[in-house]
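Section 5: illustrative case.
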């Protein structure tokens, strides 16, 4: 039974839906059906949502695999918390005009740490260490 990963999956799903809503409402308000129509504000929202989906899927899949293999809950919580921090911070730092925004670094850094942590968990379990 999975008890840890679903907590973070739910929290990240809420963030993902909020970001999706920002894209959809912007499209509706501006009459843009597909693509970004050269609108940098829409492009920014699309990438904020897309980045969330890309990172969240990647890390949550590894988390559920590690949890299913019996990795200690503490390590699953560490990756989940880092993922959540990253997914909260990153959209605020992903700016069209500022590639070096501090929250972008926080988002990327915490997600890389979450991925590395859970990759180690998987590797330890695969090797039976």
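Designed sequence:
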């Amino acid at each position: 039974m999975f008890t840890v990963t679903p907590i973070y999956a739910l929290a990240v799903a809420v963030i993902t839906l909020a970001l999706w809503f920002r894209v959809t409402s912007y499209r509706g308000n501006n009459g843009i059906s597909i693509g970004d129509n050269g609108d940098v504000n829409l492009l920014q929202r699309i990438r904020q949502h897309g980045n969330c989906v890309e990172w969240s899927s990647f890390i949550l899949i590894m988390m559920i695999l590690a949890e299913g293999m019996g990795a200690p809950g503490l390590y699953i919580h560490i990756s989940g918390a880092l993922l959540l921090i990253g997914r909260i911070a990153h959209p605020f730092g992903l700016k069209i005009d500022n590639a070096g925004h501090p929250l972008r670094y926080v988002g990327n850094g915490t997600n890389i740490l979450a991925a590395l942590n859970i990759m180690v968990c998987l590797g330890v379990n695969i090797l039976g260490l």
